[in-house]
Amino acid sequence: MTDWKTRTKLIHAGARRSQYGEMSEAIFLTQGFVYDSAEQAEARFIESGPDEFIYARYGNPTVRIFEERMAAIEGTEDAFATASGMAAVNGALSSMLKAGDHVVAARALFGSCLYVLEILGRFGVEVTLVDGTDLDQWRGAMRVGTKAVFLESVSNPTLEVIDVKSVAEIAHAVGATVIVDNVFATPTFSKAVELGADVVVYSATKHIDGSGRCLGGIVCGTRQFIRKVLEPYLKHTGAALSPFNAWVMLKGMETLDLRVRQQAASALGIATALEGHEKLARVIYPGLAGHAQHAIAMAQMGAGGTVVTLEVAGGQAGAFRFLNALEIVKISNNLGDSKSIITHPATTTHQRLPAEQKAMLGITPGLVRLSVGLEDPEDLLADIGQALAQV
Ligand SMILES: *Cc1c(COP(=O)(O)O)cnc(C)c1O
Predict the structure, then answer these.
(1) Annotation: CATH topology of 6-253
(2) How far is the CA of 290 from the centre of ligand 1 (A)?
(3) Helix %, strand %, coil % of the chain (to 5)
């Protein structure tokens, strides 16, 4: 199995079949498991193998297939699934940190990721935020004893691309664990572990499901980190992924590569066509040669991803007029869905941030985040064009 290429692993890795030999992965919609004897129950609580289950908060066969499949494509020894992407982010950080520890994080983060860092601060973890695109700031913030580095490899929503390889080298020099939220890079374009990430986190809600059905998350890392550090924290605090949702994620993985490659191709086409549009002050897409980190994006993903961020002329009023005029593209706040979705971060996902912080992060009133779906890109461009005409 280790020789298989990613697209084969996406379909088959981690598969388990019951005595019925079912073709599609079974949904083990069970909270618990029956033991043959009291002795077996005792033994399993002491040490359980990969196919010995105790309680669905600890693990479940359907969830286990999802975990093994994700570890296989990410290139890590193991993985642990969670109820949502935020449970994965919180689990990865909280399981390894304690009061007095120091964390360095990129400042351009999803609003909820910033909130988790605030919670850590309340519990005595010191957090230093840096401009993730400036390696000197990473170097300057690192100290002997820095425990973890946290970043989104491509930031939400301004699509800053962070040089994971260089940041990992800087972090490893002081012995810090590098935790990468890789949602925007997607598992298809991810080389995070190859680049030096120790732990890779995904919201499976996004591209992995890909049809906007279920919440889910996953943390991928070494067996030592996943089983000895993360699992005790997660199994006792309860953010377990439901077996049904794990099954939906497995179905999503079967088409993940096809979907994400098509969405990225459409995103590039749309970004290219919109560059220089009179109603747009900026078109931000890592796949465009003019993007500030275009070379890094190409080196670490080989593509620009599935999201295009636009700055509409006329501030919030212009952005709202644009959103309200769209017919195919839906106003919502998911991304990675087969349906194209548009979001106004300043008033939704990043509403909570104070005005100065929004300004510093480039989340301007006219900024909109377009998650490109699987519709015909010509229809999408026509829809965007007619909506921009109304701005
Ligand atoms: C959506 C998202 C999350 C959170 O995932 P949920 O599944 O919604 O909990 C975390 N990080 C990034 C970058 C995201 O886009």
Answers:
(1) Aspartate Aminotransferase; domain 2 (3.40.640)
(2) 27
(3) 40, 15, 40
157: preceding bond cis by omega (within 30 degrees): yes
Residue nearest (by alpha carbon) to ligand 1 atom 4 = 85
Q: What is the CATH number of domain 256-388?
A: 3.90.1150.10
For 256-323, give the DSSP string: HHHHHHHHHHHHHHHHHHHTT-TTEEEEE-TTSTTSTTHHHHHHHHSS--SEEEEEETTHHHHHHHHH
pTM: 0.96
190 lines ligand 1 (CB under 6 A): no
* Residue 1 pLDDT exceeds 80: no
**How many angstroms is it from 85 CA to the middle of ligand 1?**
5
**Ligand 1 centre from 335 Cα, in Å?**
9
Q: Ligand 1 pocket, 151 CB below 6 A?
A: no
Ligand 1 centroid to residue 82 C-alpha, Å: 12
**pLDDT tens across 44-93, in order?**
999 888 899 999 999 999 999 999 999 999 999 999 999 999 999 999 99
Domain boundaries in the chain?
6-253, 256-388
What are the tens digits of pLDDT across the range 221-230? 999 999 999 9
In the prediction, which pLDDT does 71 show?
97
pLDDT at 111: 86
